[in-house]
Amino acid sequence: MKIIAFGGSSSKQSINKKLATYAAGLFENADVEILDLNDFELPLFSVDKEAEIGKPELATKFLEKLDQADILVISLAEHNAGFSVAFKNIYDWASRTDKLVFREKPMLLLATSPGRGGGKNVIEAAKISLPKYGGNIKDTFSLPSFNENFDSEKNVISNPEFDNRLKQIIRNFATN
Ligand SMILES: Cc1cc2nc3c(=O)[nH]c(=O)nc-3n(C[C@H](O)[C@H](O)[C@H](O)COP(=O)(O)O)c2cc1C
C-alpha cells in the first residue's frame, strides 16, 4: 500500500508537513512517500500565464505522484482561514491539466496550526472544494496548538488524547 503525504505549505519548517509525516507513518505495512510543495513551485497561476507557458511539466508530475498513491495524507496550512498560496497554486495549475486533481484516492485530511483553531477553517474550505476536484475525503483531523501538542524533537503528537484520536481514525481508515 502506497501512501503519498504532504503538508499544504512551502515553509521549510512546515508543521503541517511534520503532522502529515507522523500520520502517514502510523499506517501499517505502508510504503510512505513524503512530497514537498517546494518541488512543485510554479509561477502564480493566471490565465495569462497559462497562455504563455501552457501546461507545466511540474503540474503533470504532481498529478503522476498522486496517481501512484493508494491513500493520500494531506495536512493543510491555514492562511487567513483558507489555503496557503503554495497549495492553492499547484492545485490550480494541476486542475487545468486534469480536473480530478486528487484522483478519487481515499484521503485523510489533516490540519494544524499554532493557534487553538488548529486549522479547522481550512478543513472546512477543503471539504467544499476538494470533492469537486477528485477529493475523496474519508476522514479529517485537526491538531490545535501545535507547539503544545507535538514534540518536534521526537516528531510525535505528545498529547495522548489527540494522539489516540488520530490513531483511532487511522485504524478505522484501514478497515473501511
Ligand atoms: C499569512 C498568514 C496567515 C495565517 N492565518 C492563519 C489562520 O487563519 N489561522 C491559523 O490558525 N493560523 C494562521 N496562520 C498561522 C499558521 O497556522 C502558521 O504559520 C503555521 O505554521 C502554518 O503551517 P505550516 O508551518 O505548515 O506552514 C497564518 C500565518 C500566515 C503567515
What does the model show?
By secondary structure, the chain is of the alpha/beta class. A 5-stranded parallel β-sheet has the order 2-1-3-6-7, sandwiched between helices. The chain has a two-stranded antiparallel ribbon with strand order 4-5. It is built from 7 helices and 9 strands. The protein binds flavin mononucleotide. The site of flavin mononucleotide has 16 residues, from helix 1 and strand 4. It holds the Pfam family FMN_red. This is NADPH-dependent FMN reductase. Residues 1-131 form the NADPH-dependent FMN reductase-like domain. It comes from Flavobacterium ichthyis.
How are strands sequenced across the largest beta sheet?
2-1-3-6-7
From the helix content, strand content and strand pairing, which structural class follows? alpha/beta
| Continuous helix count | 7
Major sheet details: 5 strands, parallel
Small molecules bound: flavin mononucleotide
**What is the arithmetic mean of pLDDT?**
97
Stretches where pLDDT falls below 50 for ≥5 residues? none
Q: How many β-strand runs?
A: 9
- Strand % is 15-25%
Indicate the overall shape.
Answer: globular
First and last CA, distance: 14 Å
Order of helices and strands: EHEHHEEEHEHEHEEH
Report Rg: 16 Å
Fraction in helix: 40-55%
Write a brief structural summary.
The chain is α/β, with parallel strands linked by helices.
How are the secondary structure elements laid out?
Blueprint: E1 2-8, H1 15-25, E2 31-35, H2 47-53, H3 57-67, E3 71-76, E4 78-79, E5 82-83, H4 85-97, E6 106-112, H5 120-129, E7 136-143, H6 146-149, E8 150-151, E9 156-157, H7 160-175
Parallel strand pairs: 1-2, 1-3, 3-6, 6-7
Antiparallel strand pairs: 4-5, 8-9
Helix pairs in contact: 3-4
Pfam families: FMN_red
Organism: Flavobacterium ichthyis
InterPro entries: Flavoprotein-like_sf (IPR029039), FMN_Rdtase-like_dom (IPR005025), NAD(P)H-dep_reductase (IPR050712)
